[in-house]
Amino acid sequence: KQEVTQIPAALSVPEGENLVLNCSFTDSAIYNLQWFRQDPGKGLTSLLLIQSSQREQTSGRLNASLDKSSGRSTLYIAASQPGDSATYLCAVSSNTGKLIFGQGTTLQVKP
Amino acid sequence: DADVTQTPRNRITKTGKRIMLECSQTKGHDRMYWYRQDPGLGLQLIYYSFDVKDINKGEISDGYSVSRQAQAKFSLSLESAIPNQTALYFCATSDTGTNYGYTFGSGTRLTVV
């Protein structure tokens, strides 16, 4: 059974700092890995999707990497801003399209 | 208009009542999902549907049922609501054409008293 773990559960950093969020999964037979952002009481916004054949994806200040063999992904946020404060969720998909989520990392960026 | 619309946004209901949460999408995606989110537990899959004639149970389907009325509509029912079904419920869609990139609705906050 696929299990997804995110560390740390919470993170607080000063504005401007670069940071890394971690995601690990137990079964390397994934179809893709997705990172989402969730603001309090809101829905999920897709940030990045990495296919199993890819090693990384970039969007603006965000860079996500995937090491399928070791069951790990990282989300790198450059030059963090207070507006980046949110919960970040990692999820892996099997070839059936079902997503299995981690529990999330809640990020606070202090001005 | 949102690509994935959930109604209602908020609902308070009494124990034992039947309640339906509705989801509609304009993405044209073939796959639809219902997830539940509890604080600190991430999202758990309740039911999913790959097309109108296909319904599958997820991790936590007990106490729930679903109906896929059309490609664009997927509703979730709680036959007899209980307090531990108090949670945030999300509908989502995906499509083989987008490599299963997901689009989520804004969620329904359900409170069972």
Structure commentary:
The complex is a heterodimer of chains A (111) and B (113). With 111 residues, chain A is mostly beta strands. Chain A has no helices and 11 strands. The model of chain A has no long low-confidence stretch (mean pLDDT 93). Chain B is 0% helix and 56% strand. In chain B, a hairpin with an 8-residue loop joins strand 9 and strand 10. The chains are: A mainly beta (111), B mainly beta (113). Chains A and B meet through strand 4, strand 5, strand 9 and strand 10 of A and strand 4, strand 5, strand 9 and strand 10 of B.
The largest β sheet of chain B comes out as: 7 strands, mixed
**Low-pLDDT segments of chain B:** none
- The counted number of beta strands of chain B is 11
Which structural class best describes the helix and strand composition of chain A? mainly beta
Low-pLDDT windows of residues of chain A: none
Please count the beta strands of chain A (DSSP E, at least 2 residues each): 11
**Oligomer type:** heterodimer
End-to-end Cα distance of chain A, whole Å, is: 41 Å
